[in-house]
Amino acid sequence: MTTYLEFEKPIAELESKISELRHLPNSGDVDIAEEVMRLQTRVDKQIRATYAKLTSWQRVQVARHAERPHAQRYIDRLITDYTPLAGDRAFAEDAAIVGGLGRLQGRSVVVLGQEKGEDTESRIRHNFGMAKPEGYRKAQRLMKLADRFRIPVVALVDTPGAYPGLDAEARGQGEAIASSIDTCLSLGVPMVSVVIGEGGSGGALAIASANRVYMLENSVYSVITPEGCASILWRDNANAQDAAEAMKMTATDLKKLEVIDEVIPEPLGGAHRAPDEAIDTVGRIVSQALDDLSQFDPDTLRRQRQDKFLAMGKKGL
Question: What is the pTM (predicted TM-score) of this model?
Answer without folding.
Answer: 0.91
